[in-house]
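TODO from last week: model Alpha/beta hydrolase fold domain-containing protein.
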Amino acid sequence: MSVDAEVIELQPGEELPPQLRAPEPGAKVALYLHGGAFLFDEAPDLYGDRIAAALERPVVLPHFRIGPENPFPAASDDTIAAYRQLLDAGWAPENVVVYGHSAGATMALTVITRAAEHGLPMPSGVVALSGFLDFTLTQRSLADNDGLDRITPGQAHQIGPMYLGAANPEDPAVSPALAPPSTWTDAPPLFLFCGGHEILRDDTLAVAHAAARAGCEVELRVVAGQQHGSAQRAHPLTDLLLIEIAAFVRRCDDPMPGEQKWTGGSLEDQLPG
């Protein structure tokens, strides 16, 4: 069954709707994991619609469990369950891209860090924008960018323990930035983005460096002067970012030999003055 480039919402425990079952051979889909500080849900028209249009494929938006009453691993379990549902419905893993923003970027990367635990194959690629990726809260940008970002270190110190619950912040299943090299050796290509003024900037840099050192294909975009949430706001950056992400996803759809792989130029170089 062919599916339009639209956002299809999914509640925890809900079955996939008919249009997502028995996909046509080669059909592509994106699993979009929303932001909201692990506290808030997200409507499809905030960002999901733009992703579907840019990637030209259906976008599944699972409304994973949120709030302090649902600490780890609740949201991550719901993410893994949604990914498994797609696979069980006949979507080939090489035709599924996982895409997350903010809290959703944390979820997106835990698909990689928890895949072995759940016996799941890797998706074709992972897009992670401005994720909270180190719950030990020891990265330097937390202090260096204090006062430059729209979120504060104090807020991060509130959100982190709320999401963790009783979990160990050093567990790679919780903090992808602390995952061992073996996690990234077999990981799919990554597209990572953060703003230069984000207090969580170094979370993204830590994942990028660890994954690249392990041999994973990594595309990293750090845009000077940008705060947390800049990937979603109405700004030329957002349009350029979606163009680059769409190009990355197309390369994941049809991967080239390693020596031919191309990494695009910096978004910062393309922004109007």
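Done. Residues 257-273 have pLDDT under 50 and may be disordered.
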